[in-house]
Amino acid sequence: ETGVTQTPRHLVMGMTNKKSLKCEQHLGHNAMYWYKQSAKKPLELMFVYSLEERVENNSVPSRFSPECPNSSHLFLHLHTLQPEDSALYLCASSQDDSGGQETQYFGPGTRLLVL
Amino acid sequence: GDSVTQMEGPVTLSEEAFLTINCTYTATGYPSLFWYVQYPGEGLQLLLKATKADDKGSNKGFEATYRKETTSFHLEKGSVQVSDSAVYFCALRFQGAQKLVFGQGTRLTINP
């Protein structure tokens, strides 16, 4: 148990559906992240929020829309996804001190299947 | 750009064998280096880290030494257990940056 929870753990959706992934951290951190883990590819950073402001967006398609309403919660809103978006989506948090040494703590992930 | 390269998996060993998982990196500068582990059905957990050259990170019997001259951070364990079966990720992160750059992961299976 790392202090980062994600719901749902598994999600199956059609290409026309709209769904949201939720992440909550109980560690008092001020930065949160979304990563995508696809088969046979390195983890890809999607978005970074620091102090509830988006500070990084790694060329992610607009069908993925993040939201960070406060420092403890992070959402990833999904709409009109493609089958190639099927992957494990991991949330992480850290205490951002810009030192590059703070550990990122990961949630268990949401396994997404797009049909 | 910055990148991390890990040895190809999967790696299969017998219990009590010696483990090495190679990791090399390409970066302009001196990043912090990390090993994360992902057990089946779970998210990533930090295993160990090193923040400067010649630092040795260690945890749960695993060790890795930050080698600037060879730009490497190889993971080792003297005697593996079945419970060490997991996917291991090497990663780097620069001071002042929030982005972790991961290797592709190495799947390790330990047989009794």
Mean pLDDT of chain A: 89
> How many H/I helices of chain B?
0
Give the distance, in angstroms, between the N- and C-terminal Cα atoms of chain A: 31 Å
Largest two-chain interface: A-B, 29 and 26 residues
Question: SSE order of chain A, as H and E?
Answer: EEEEEEEEEEE
User: How many individual β-strands of chain A?
Assistant: 11
Shape field of chain B? globular
Helix share bin of chain B:
under 10%
Descriptive notes:
The complex is a heterodimer of chains A (115) and B (112). In chain A, strands 2, 4, 5, 6, 9, 10 and 11 form a seven-stranded mixed sheet that branches. Chain A is mainly β and 115 residues long. Chain A is globular, with a radius of gyration of 13 Å. Chain A has no helices and eleven strands. In chain A, strand 5 and strand 6 form a beta hairpin. With 112 residues, chain B is mainly beta. In chain B, the strands form three sheets. In chain B, strands 2, 5, 6, 10, 11 and 12 form a six-stranded mixed sheet that branches. A four-stranded antiparallel sheet of chain B has the order 3-9-8-7, with no helix packed on it. In chain B, strand 10 and strand 11 form a beta hairpin. At the A-B interface, strand 5, strand 9 and strand 10 of A face strand 5 and strand 6 of B.
Which characteristics define this entry?
heterodimer; A: 115 residues; mainly beta; 0% helix; 56% strand; B: 112 residues; six-stranded mixed sheet; globular
Topology (SSEs and partners):
The complex is a heterodimer of chains A (115) and B (112).
Chain A: E1 4-7, E2 10-13, E3 18-25, E4 31-37, E5 44-50, E6 53-57, E7 64-70, E8 73-79, E9 87-94, E10 105-106, E11 110-114
Parallel strand pairs in A: 2-11
Antiparallel strand pairs in A: 1-3, 3-8, 4-5, 4-9, 5-6, 7-8, 9-10, 9-11
Chain B: E1 3-6, E2 11-14, E3 19-21, E4 23-26, E5 32-38, E6 44-50, E7 56-59, E8 62-65, E9 75-77, E10 86-93, E11 101-102, E12 106-111
